[in-house]
Design the sequence.
């Protein structure tokens, strides 16, 4: 009887220890970079202010990101035309895209180029909020579109990221 | 002696009247529908209007503002106006465009195409300059504030110096020299071929701000001023961002 009580008590302690170790492990995992991407990909304050919550949340938490070729269509209301099929963006590129798009340091917020925006490559962030993101390599600008709301930002400071990692996607079609 | 004095008086009156009769035709094409820079373009317009008040005040010139803003920036309207515009030989024409711009690899002159957003058309600055030159104004100033980058393919702030109080006679003399005593053609655009032009979202375009800022500073120079100094000064103010280009064929 005493022995069985001791065993039960020991098992309880082991369970508690296991629980503590599990809790510690989860705690450490959330602090290790790369283990929980969504914490890293929070938009900067200025970007939130400029783009609004809907667009920022759509980029932060998409179900899927696809890419496609896009051309200007000046005679249509939307001013663009998607001219290729859509392909799923590989996960590592999706993370890089989110990281770059959501970083305040990528943009100028007080000045802009007087450049005719010519979309060249597009991304669709599908999910609760669908967001279109167009890159113009000739203007070094990014256009965000959601529910008829459009915003253009100049991404000169991180332009090289788009040029090095994403411009090549235009040749996939 | 009396006749000689009367003769001098008549000549002086003639010269004075000729000088005062010169008029400034300011043709402003303000593309306030240009995507992403709408409010900056409106600011440019207000800054020019303020400057016209100064020009009138100091030169006595009547300023006729012919502004085509936003939805009014239509090719039919603008070209009809340009064709029918009548000038006197002593008149000054200021042509100013602000909005989007670009160039193509095939373009054979250094000046940009100016985008008129409402109609989605692009007009060569050279075309307008040539049309206006044919009207033979005494002085033609043609400015395009737009990008000039090829389409195929430090945070810096302009200082707004508060004007140094200066004798009104100096300001008047400088304005008169620039607008009444200069003849010829000035063509300028805010960036070289292949370059972008920038606008401060809340203040207006960088080159327009720099140009008007230099103009206001230069007319206060006791030693006098000239157009070249104003363009050089404006260039220095924006050269970290863009390099304006200009040709001054004036005397």
Sequence:
């Amino acid at each position: 009887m005493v022995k069985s009580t001791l065993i039960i008590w020991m098992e309880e302690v082991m369970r508690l220890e296991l629980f503590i170790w599990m809790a510690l492990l989860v705690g450490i995992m959330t602090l290790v970079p790369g283990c929980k991407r969504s914490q890293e990909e929070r938009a900067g304050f200025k970007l939130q202010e400029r783009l609004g919550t809907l667009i920022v949340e759509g980029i932060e938490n998409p179900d899927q990101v696809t890419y496609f070729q896009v051309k200007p269509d000046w005679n249509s209301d939307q001013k663009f035309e998607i001219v290729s099929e859509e392909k799923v963006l590989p996960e590592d590129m999706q993370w890089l895209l989110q990281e770059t798009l959501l970083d305040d340091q990528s943009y100028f917020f007080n000045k802009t180029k007087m450049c005719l925006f010519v979309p060249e490559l597009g991304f669709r962030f599908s999910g609760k909020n669908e967001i279109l993101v167009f890159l113009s390599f000739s203007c070094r600008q990014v256009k965000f579109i959601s529910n008829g709301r459009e915003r253009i930002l100049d991404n000169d400071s991180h332009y090289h990221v788009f040029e090095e990692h994403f411009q090549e996607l235009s040749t996939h079609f | 002696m009396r006749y000689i004095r009367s003769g001098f008086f008549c000549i002086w009156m003639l010269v004075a009247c000729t000088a005062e009769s010169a008029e400034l035709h300011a043709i402003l094409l303000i593309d306030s529908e240009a995507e992403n820079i709408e409010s900056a373009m409106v600011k440019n317009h207000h800054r020019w209007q303020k400057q016209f008040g100064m020009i009138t005040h100091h030169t006595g010139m009547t300023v006729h503002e012919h502004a085509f803003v936003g939805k009014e920036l239509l090719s039919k309207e603008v070209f009809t106006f340009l064709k029918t515009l009548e000038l006197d030989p002593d008149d000054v024409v200021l042509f100013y465009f602000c909005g989007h711009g670009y160039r193509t690899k095939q373009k054979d002159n250094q000046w940009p195409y100016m985008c008129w957003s409402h109609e989605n058309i692009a007009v060569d600055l050279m075309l307008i300059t040539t049309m206006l030159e044919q009207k033979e104004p005494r002085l033609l100033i043609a400015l395009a504030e737009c990008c000039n980058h090829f389409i195929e393919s430090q945070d810096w702030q302009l200082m707004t110096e508060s004007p140094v109080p200066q004798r009104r006679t100096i300001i008047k003399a400088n304005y008169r020299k620039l607008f009444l005593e200069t003849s010829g053609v000035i063509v300028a655009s805010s960036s070289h071929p292949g370059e972008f032009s920038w606008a401060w979202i809340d203040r207006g375009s960088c080159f327009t701000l720099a140009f008007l800022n230099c103009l206001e500073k230069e007319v206060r120079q006791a030693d006098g001023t000239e157009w070249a100094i104003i363009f050089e000064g404006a260039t220095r103010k924006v050269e970290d961002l863009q390099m304006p280009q200009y040709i001054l064929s004036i005397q």
Remarks:
- The longest helix of chain A spans residues 2-31.
- Confidence is low (pLDDT under 50) at residues 32-40 of chain A.
- The beta strands of chain A are 64-72, 80-82, 87-88, 111-113, 121-126, 131-136, 141-146, 149-154.
- Residues 40-172 of chain A form one domain.
